[in-house]
Amino acid sequence: MARFIIWRIFQLIPVILGISILTFLMMSFVPGDPVVLMLGKHISPQTLENARQGLGLDQPLLTRYLQYLWNALQGDFGRSYIQHQEVSQMLYDKIPVTFCLVVVAQTMALTLGVLIGVLASVKRYSFWDRFTTFSALIGVSMPTFWLGMMLQLVFGVLLHILPVSGTGGEGFHLQNYILPGFTLGFASMAMYAQLIRSNMIDVLHMDYIRTARAKGLSSRIVVFKHAMRNALIPVTTQAGVDFGSLMGGAILTETIFSLPGIGTMLFNAISRRDYPVVQGVTLFLALVFVLINLLVDISYALLDPRIRYD
Amino acid sequence: MLNSKRYPSLVIAIIVSAALILTGCGLTTEPTKNTTLSASIPVDGGLFRFGMISSPTALDPAFLVEVNGIEIAKELYDGLIRYDPNTLEVKPAIAEKWDYSADKKVLTFHIRKDVKFHDGTGVNAQDILDVWNRLAAKATVSPVAFPLEPIVGFAEVNSGAAQTISGLKKIDDYTIEVTLKEKNAAFLTSLGHPTVSIYKLEAAKKAGQDFGTPASTPETIVGTGAFKFVKWNSDQDITIEKFKDYYGTKAHVDQVVYRIFKDESTALNEFRAGTLDYVDLLPPGQSQAIIQEFPDQTIKTITFTNEFIGFNLSKAPFKDNVYLRKAIAYAIDPQSVVDSILSGLSTVSNGPLPITMPGYDKDLICPSFDQTKAKEYLAKAGYPEGKGLAPIQYAYNFNQTNQIIAEAFQSQLKEVGIPTELKSMEWGSYINAVQQGDTQMFRLAWGADYPDPDNSLRVLYTKSQWGMNNNTFYSNPQVETLMTQGLEENDTLKRMAIYKTIQEKLVEDQPAIWTFNTTYLRLFGKNVHDLTISALDQKDMRTVWLSK
Questions:
Q1: Is A159 close to B259, i.e. CB distance below 8 A?
Q2: Which residues of A touch B236 (CB under 8 A)?
Q3: Which among A193, A271, B270, B294 counts the fewest CB atoms within 10 Å?
């Protein structure tokens, strides 16, 4: 297992390097001059020249990339063209917000999704089963924007029991992440419930479950210890992939709930051709994806004793 | 907890909001309040919670390129002059008075002796020179040094050939002399832009490149305004507090916190929850419902921003074909768009100047919706009933409102036989295409930086700005001469007569169709008084006060 983990971490180097080259090239060839976007409406030949020189954009592409790489290796990801802040500082400020949001969303989605899914599979064709199918349909079809707004109006404006938006200041304030977490996790919750349900139905008909029941084990132990553990494997894969996607893709939820996360940071940076920010966020997200995949692979071994990486 | 008295209205708000979010429709029109002016005596104290949509990009005066940065910076830093918040007339600020030389090329500013930086130290002439030299310097890479451009020696500093602007001279500790390259009647007014306002350079240098970013501290942002900087939580909020040693009329509120939102609907919900005193932008398409939900709590502001449809005059079909341009000007009906799409919340433009701008000619006759005339001009253009006219590309930067408006214009043009194809692009690609002349007909807007007609006309309609701000590639030597005359004429009446002629010439040549004056609806709490919003779209935090 240790060798496997070291090998996977070693694989990070070419992946990150490749992504940095691709992002750099893509941003350079996308139409739209970052200097024009930075300067706004006050452009003159002299301000354009000053800005190009100041940002080093008058240098050849290769020189710029190598300079970027050299600086990045020393922990310097440059400064935002638009916000003028150090990219590393921006990431430092915004990663915890998105991380907290995604953790809360995934925790809610997994907890509720697994519970509903197990209940639906055990009580097949009952109210709970139909509820699961119905909520999956609603969850997938409900626009995030609308759900977020409705939650704000009910819990923030009408009942005054949760904040409408924001992070609540320094530190982690769980109450500020409940509504956005639910909004973000709602679709996943419905999907996990459906996934668990179908897997559990398959597993519950397997021989080893029948054997377990025949041994006289209680239904609770059979369902939660023997059946659910196997049914969780595909959900784990899905949850891992989702976690990575949500880290960079929670743009709508971050927007609705005014959460200063990296999703909106990346979106704004792309639309304003803020190269250093796009590079910094993309590299970070690539790192997250690779690490999450590694964690998912490790979790397989923990969930399924038959899987070993040695 | 649940407030029974508010319950019915909130339930209605939820139902209405749910419906509006889903349908995007408005309700019936109700009048809105135009001012928060109060007859009561102002009360000092309190925290004003300002709901701001989107974060400022910088609080460094050298990088004030967008409205939210300007909004906060103008409270932190004072300039030599300021604008009256109601009339936008030039008023003394750090400079208590000024004199022109006989040839109007030298301006002498007399600095007040009681102006203090936020750290308690005094402001003198050298501080002003230092800050302006930094703004002009090549190394600063400021995109907004434009107010200093008319000064002798600016170009040398901006290109890196000199360190200090030769046209700036310190006469004594409280007098500075500014020598202009040419007579420039707009120069003094342009000095009200916060980019040329005064801060303590020594403190800013301590922050280095972090000056004016969220990493700023009260020790690095040391301004001269009625409020001093407290903190900036990136993308969350910015707090400023009353400066007790301010030389001018002191603010009433103790603190202002600008809470930053990414979406207007969220800010509106925070206002409904009672956590904001003011919302700067409201969700598009919901203005009428909001006016009904909050009667007498909204303000309508017509700004200095003029939206227009530009014609690319560098190539067919608009090059050398003023009749086709006129045909389109007569074929579209902006008023119907205001009524049906913009919920009545916009103002139809009448010519190249915003209707609130000094020099605006209210008697100017622009082509207005008339399908018969549109068809006449189309025939004169060589395309009777549109025959032989290939579809004209109408480009715009994508957002929902621009999309719906473009579709409405397309349909109106089709009615007279003008075929169009719509092309929407995201902003970066779009502005690139427009500046390169890769579009035929395009949508843009220009927001003036200061209250002077020169700032709305010269940049958009002179040859020196081709491919930068003049993207119609319009040029008329007669208009260029008039622009120069307008800038050099110091007699206001004569000057405005020149701009009247320029407006007439532009309407005659029709390089663009001026469609809407951007108009905003703002929401304020019942306890908010004397909040003034100028046509520059600036809210004066010095005048506002909160009743208990």
A1: no
A2: 166-167, 258, 260
A3: A271
Nearest residue in A to B69, CA atom: A83
Chain B residues 268-297 with CB within 8 Å of chain A: 269-270, 272-273, 275
* Radius of gyration in angstroms for the set of CA atoms belonging to chain A, rounded to a whole number: 24
Mean pLDDT for B528-543 is 92
Query: What are the C-alpha distances in Å from B215 to residues A150, B212, B310, B332?
Result: 35, 8, 41, 49
Half-sphere exposure for A116 (CA within 13 Å, toward CB): 25
Q: What is the pLDDT of residues A169-217, one digit of tens each?
A: 888 999 999 999 999 998 888 888 888 988 888 888 888 888 888 888 8
**pLDDT recorded at residue A41:** 79
Chosen from B7, B54, B235, B436 to mutate, greatest number of chain A CBs within 10 A: B235
Which one of B236, B259, B430, B471 would you mutate to disrupt binding with A, by most A Cβ within 10 Å of its Cβ?
Answer: B236
Judged by a CB distance cut-off of 8 A, whether residue B429 touches chain A is: yes
In B437-536, the DSSP E strands lie at 441-447, 512-524, 528-529
Q: Are strands B237-242 and B255-261 parallel, antiparallel or unpaired?
A: antiparallel
Pairing of strands B278-279, B47-53: parallel
Measured CA to CA, the distance from residue B142 to residue B542 in angstroms comes to 28
**pLDDT higher than threshold 50 for residue B363:** yes
Find residue B257's DSSP bridge partners.
B49, B239
Instruction: Indicate the domain borders of chain A.
Output: 2-73, 88-303
User: Per-residue pLDDT for B27 more than 80?
Assistant: no
Report the amino acid identity of residue B281: L
Q: Is B41 on the interface with A (CB under 8 A)?
A: no
Q: How many residues does chain B have?
A: 548
How far is Cα of residue B188 from the mean position of the Cα atoms in its chain?
18
Residues with pLDDT less than 70, chain A? 305-310
Number of alpha helices (DSSP H) and beta strands (DSSP E) in chain B: 16, 19
- Yes or no, beta carbons of A157 and B10 under 8 Å apart: yes
Q: At what angle do helices B371-380 and B322-331 cross, to 10 degrees?
A: 160
**Does B57 sit within 8 Å of A83, measured CB to CB?**
yes
Asked whether the beta carbons of B195 and B147 are under 8 A apart, the reply is yes
Domain A88-303 has CATH 3.30.565.10: no
